[in-house]
Amino acid sequence: MTVTSRRPVLADLVRRILVAVFAVLQIVVSVLTETGATHESIGAVARQYATPLLAADWAFAIWVPIYVGFLGYAVYQALPGQRGRQLHREIGWWLAFSAVLNIGWVLAFGSGWVPLAELLIVMLLVALAVVFGRLSRQPAESVLERVVLRGTVALYTGWVSFAIALATAATGAWMGLPASGALAAIAAVVVLLAVSVIASWVVLAGTAVIGYSVAAVWAAAGIALNDPPAAVVVAGAIAIVVIIASTTRRLTTAGNPMRAAWG
């Protein structure tokens, strides 16, 4: 059942507009950056600070469903039956903020301001984690909500959970830390396994875990298949197995498998 309250409709209107504006703006900024119209592409900058944790170019295609889903949510939250819904009041501002942070991250990283980009992506993960956690408190009210909201947030959070490791590695290379060799490979293995453990914990405790797991496995595969040192390939494979096993356990032991899987 949709829950509404009597907060001023002006705040709801402002929130809806901001979510929609930033949903579009983050796509525009990303496209302009990737085409080199405003800044150097994200991939080009990432290759300047390449480490064993650099993902293959194809892995970044995950931004397409994330952006499309975010845009879908912008439309969904503006539907007549959704405008005064308490759920959107609890997460809408955070999602608008996440879009601002993403825009800032893209511009900062594309400009070569790697430490600033690192700070912004950490903040982005925090914002997404807040939304992901709040969505876990109540089930979705429709299939549409599961697709454009629960699925999008889960996919986005899962990807950023691993992307933050890539960003941290790039920051280390920017600072002059070893970006290749034995030390870099050992650090990459430790970070990759640590992130996979955290991701598994999220899967075992959260809802809409299919989207989160798909993004996490996709990211781990992107790293493992980008010709890193053999130890990183093995760590990536272990991460994939651990995440899939955690997802399987979550779905087979949940009291409500549908909610655990899709929100």
Automatic annotation (TrEMBL):
Residues annotated as transmembrane: 13-32, 58-79, 91-110, 116-135, 147-167, 173-195, 202-224, 230-248
Keyword Transmembrane: yes
Keyword Transmembrane helix: yes
Keywords linked to the UniProt accession: Membrane, Transmembrane, Transmembrane helix
Name of the protein this chain belongs to: Tryptophan-rich sensory protein
